[in-house]
Amino acid sequence: MACKYSQHHGGNYDKGTFERGGDVPRGRFQETGRFGRMMPYLRSLTEFKPGPNALGAVGGVMDGGAAADPSQDNPRIKAGYTFLGQFIDHDLTLDATSTLEQQIDPQATRNFRTPALELDSVYGLGPKVQPYLYDQARPGKMLLGATDHDLPRNSQGVALIGDPRNDENVIIAQLHLLFLKFHNKIFDVATDPSMGWESRYEKAQSLARWHYQWLVVNEFLTRTVGRKLTERAIAQLPFRYPDYSYPFMPVEFSVAAYRFGHSQVRPGYRLSEAPFGDPAARVAALFPNNPEAPNPPENVGDLRGGRPIHNDLRIEWAAFFGTSAQPGKLVDIRLATPLLRLPDSVVGPGMPEERRSLVIRNLQRGIDARLPSGQSVAAHLRVSRRLTEEQIWKDVPGGEGPAPLWFYCLREAETLANGLLLAGAGARIVAHTFAAILEADKASYIVQMPDWTPTLGANGQFSFSDLINFTLGTELVSEDVDSLLGPASS
Ligand code: HEM
């Protein structure tokens, strides 16, 4: 049976009949952006050896396996940050206009999200324009779901949220729910009840945005590219792309470097705090089509989204953030097999087998967007530790010459940082894009009040564990990013 949900999420790129997330609302306080090139003068890579199909097939070079492999654990970045990264992506970028076959004109393609960290995926167009996202009985608050662990849904199970991609899997759905609750909690405890609901809503929204921006910079980015580079990127503001007359989303980021997160995804997840092996542990596969023997045993089904969330799939956040959380997967050239066989709920029914591979999709998208090669970007950015031909194409039969930028960024992380974090050109693209995005957003704390420090955590700090604790009253302990393993990125 055709899945209605897939029309929002799958995007039938082949027939052009619908686009993944193409119906999401535009941002509230500034024009949606466009895609553009950070480095427009570099030559595009139009083909490479051995080509997308050879790299991205199941069983091929970039297949990371269908079962959890402890040697793939990343001690620096816990599993929750993968989905926080996906959530941030959905706040920043959505290319809903291209087909996989058509060439994209990166200067003209519209980014259906605002390139700003302003939670438009949560707030949509605001309570006046999209009242169904808001609680009509409690003006100024976000609508919550029927159960404590599910999103609000209509009678057909479709999530009532600002970006349908945030119901793509059960983990990001519950992360989205956490942000809805975060807003409501701020509304209750950090706004003045004597003010009208509209003023309280705006106050809660701006506090939520600034705390979110803070933790994106000080925690997410710091973990992902290293503290040194994060601080350098922010200190170098104002940052200018070559042609920066309007805020835009660089395709080097959205089509290549920031897709590093696909390699962090595990083939399955532990949802409860109870450790693997404990009878109380609830373990779920990422997607159901996993014919190889699962390891460890998956006992509560799979994490496909687009449906009401069963009680067994509720998340205990300690399993994803804090000291007892499971690790994410290393950042390397391998993706978990379920991502090479995306189900109908992600790509839509009737999709040919080879187009179900996220590797093939990402590589093809890079060609369509006319991205430059990884080598030329690293040279242009004057990255000190550039990969040799041997390092880039190690164990890739037939691999030679200019490499796709996404593949190159993954290889940099693997070769230069042991897979713990991004390095080299990939790290620079990600750090500078975040810094430029914050600077272009005239409402961001970095522009409005650069010395601002969070008010909702302790001692002017605010981690994602603090956000969970503030919202849900838990007591997760945040790990000190600097004490974690891994070299500072160059
Ligand atoms: C279960 C986890 C995930 C799944 C199933 C998933 C799936 C997808 C799919 C199917 C696309 C569209 C591919 C195309 O045809 O171009 C996509 C795009 C993208 N993904 Fe993911 N993804 C996941 C996690 C992540 C994470 C963790 C990150 C980053 C930290 C990320 C970053 C991106 C970016 C930047 C895009 C391009 C968005 C746009 O401009 O439209 N994804 N993802």
What does this structure look like?
With 490 residues, this protein is mostly helical. It has one domain (4-483): Haem peroxidase domain superfamily, animal type (Myeloperoxidase, subunit C). The protein contains 16 helices and six strands. Strands 1-3 form a two-stranded parallel ribbon. A two-stranded antiparallel sheet has the order 2-6. A two-stranded antiparallel ribbon has the order 4-5. Helix 6 crosses helix 7 (227-235), helix 6 packs antiparallel against helix 14 (424-440) and helix 7 (227-235) packs across helix 14 (424-440). Residues 1-32 and 97-103 have low confidence and may be disordered.
Strand content: under 5%
Output mean pLDDT. 86
Strand count, sense and closure of the main sheet? 2 strands, parallel
The structural domain count equals 1
Q: What separation lies between the terminal Cα atoms? A: 50 Å
The CATH topology annotation reads as Myeloperoxidase, subunit C
Shape: globular
Question: What integer value in Å does the Rg equal?
Answer: 21 Å
Q: SSE order in H/E notation?
A: HEHEHHHHHEHEEEHHHHHHHH
Find the count of extended strands (DSSP E, 2+ residues): 6
Q: Strand order, main sheet: write it out.
A: 1-3
Uncertain residue ranges: 1-32, 97-103
Query: What count of helical segments does DSSP give?
Result: 16
Q: Name the CATH architecture.
A: Orthogonal Bundle
- Distinct compounds present: protoporphyrin IX containing FE
Helix content percent band = 25-40%
* Class by SSE composition: mainly alpha
Q: Briefly, what CATH class?
A: Mainly Alpha
Full CATH superfamily name? Haem peroxidase domain superfamily, animal type
